[in-house]
Amino acid sequence: MSCHTQDFCLGCDALLQSPPGWFRTARLGLLANQASVNKSFESVKRLIVKTGGNLRCLFSPQHGFYSEKQANMIESADFKDPESGLPVVSLYSSSREPAAGALESIDVLLIDLQDVGTRVYTYTTTIGLCIEACARAGKRVIILDRPNPISGTEIEGNVVEPPFRSFVGRYPVPMRHGLTAGEFGRFVRATENIDCDLEVVAMRGWKRGRYFDQLGIEWVYPSPNMPTLQTALLYPGMVLLEGTNISEGRGTTLPFQLFGAPFLDRKRLLGQLEPGLEGVAFRPVTFEPAFDKYMGKPCPGFQIHITDRERFKPYRLGLALLRALCVTHPDNFRWLDPPYEYEMEKLPVDILIGSATIRKRVEQGLSIREIESGREQGLQTYRKTREPLLLYPD
Fold first, then answer.
1. Per-domain residue ranges for the chain?
2. Does residue 247 carry a pLDDT above 50?
3. Among residues 214, 369, 240, 231, which one has the least CA distance to residue 304?
């Protein structure tokens, strides 16, 4: 599908409509999954071959090349793509970065992944690790950019503290980082001082304040539990429940939109959620997960409805929920123990948050204002570092 400069155009379409000279001569690798499609739902993998690209190898992120695997250390194996016959190298297995041997067969690594704008969504960490590995191997990296679906203007949360760097927080960004995948790659190269030949094929027609449903294209789920834009909007806060014994809705058709547990007292919990959670409503429900936490057990809880996404602060919601759960259910609520995303010692909630201090404030029942305090200096540094790396206007 063609796109004109006045229309929205994905990075993959911009590349393939006018392929540069190296496209047909360089040996290409592609990091992608089943959501790596153009506006007409055509696979970028197929389009590269159709356009004459010398594609030699495929790489897959967490959840697998077909986005079929569930989360949290459910690995995918290397295999041969039955359609193209190309090898598919998993970057969510015994290694989370491409080995030097896997890069020997290529000159250029193309990256086309739909991120969701949240630090702990591991695709950006995988992009960063690929940039690091390609720098060591002397390979070029080209990111075919895609939109930040929850807009690129809002920034929320604390910057990861160095002791809590992990696969869900390798680089110094807040939870809602406001970057596209391409901008994230530029941020990694700059902040990690990586000598990598990195290029971003920019989108056309995307502005920072635009949400995915304002682009005239359809959402294609990038992982099994990210089925809708609504899920992505809630994810920066609701993902914190992964570090607790509260179901975040996995095993239902509304992951991250539902939460609950067999012991949850809805009335008590709702009474403790502080005022100031704007743009959101809680509807009482009972659900029964088909897998994951409390499989087959009725879970009283809530469905979260976003009523005004411009005022809604998802990370604040997540912290408010943790605080309310600690206060109202001290005998039943608990933090889960490691391992979690290859971290074997630190609490999962601490690496999700990127700090132990915030978890301790939550345990003390401090106000949300007090829980969130002290993060502004880190955010100011982040904004200052981020600004010259941005590719799109407000």
1. 11-223+383-389, 229-363
2. yes
3. 231
> How does DSSP classify residue 335?
B
> Span 183-207, mean pLDDT?
97
Tell me which fold the domain 229-363 belongs to: Aspartate Aminotransferase, domain 1 (3.90.1150)
Token pair for 175: 């939870």
| pLDDT score recorded for residue 1 | 43
Mean pLDDT (the chain, rounded)? 96
Report the pLDDT value the prediction gives residue 3, as an integer from 0 to 100.
Answer: 58
What SS3 class is residue 280? strand
How far is Cα of residue 279 from the mean position of the Cα atoms in its chain?
A: 22
Q: Answer yes or no: CATH 3.30.300.30 is held by domain 11-223+383-389.
A: no
Q: Is the pTM value of this prediction over 0.85?
A: yes
pLDDT digits (tens, 9 = 90+) for 117-153: 999 999 999 999 999 999 999 999 999 999 999 999 9
DSSP state of 125: H
Q: Where are the beta strands (DSSP E) in 51-204?
A: 55-60, 79-80, 87-90, 108-111, 140-144, 198-201
Q: Which two tokens mark 277?
A: 């959670």
Buried (b) or exposed (e) across 244-264, using 16+ Cβ within 10 A?
Answer: bbbbbbbbbebbbbbbbbeeb
pLDDT at 5 over 50: no
Q: What confidence category does residue 6 fall into, taking pLDDT thresholds of 50, 70 and 90?
A: low
Tally of CA atoms within 13 A in the half-sphere of 114 that contains its CB: 26
Q: Is 187 helix (H, G, I), strand (E, B) or coil?
A: helix
Reply yes or no: is the peptide bond before residue 339 cis, omega within 30 of 0.
Answer: yes
Reading the block at residue 373, the tokens are 């305090």
- Would you state the torsion angle of the CA atoms of residues 75, 58, 226, 131, taken in this order, to the nearest 10 degrees? 90
Judge contact between 356 and 250, C-beta under 8 A.
Answer: no
The string of DSSP codes covering 27-53 is -EEEE--TT-B-TT--BHHHHHHHTT-
Q: Which residues pair with 280 in a beta bridge?
A: 306
For residue 332 the two structure tokens come to: 């039943």
| Furthest C-alpha separation in the chain | 65
Residue 35 Cα distances to 154, 218, 255, 305, 318, angstroms = 24, 11, 18, 25, 27
Confirm if 162 and 222 have CB atoms less than 8 A apart. no
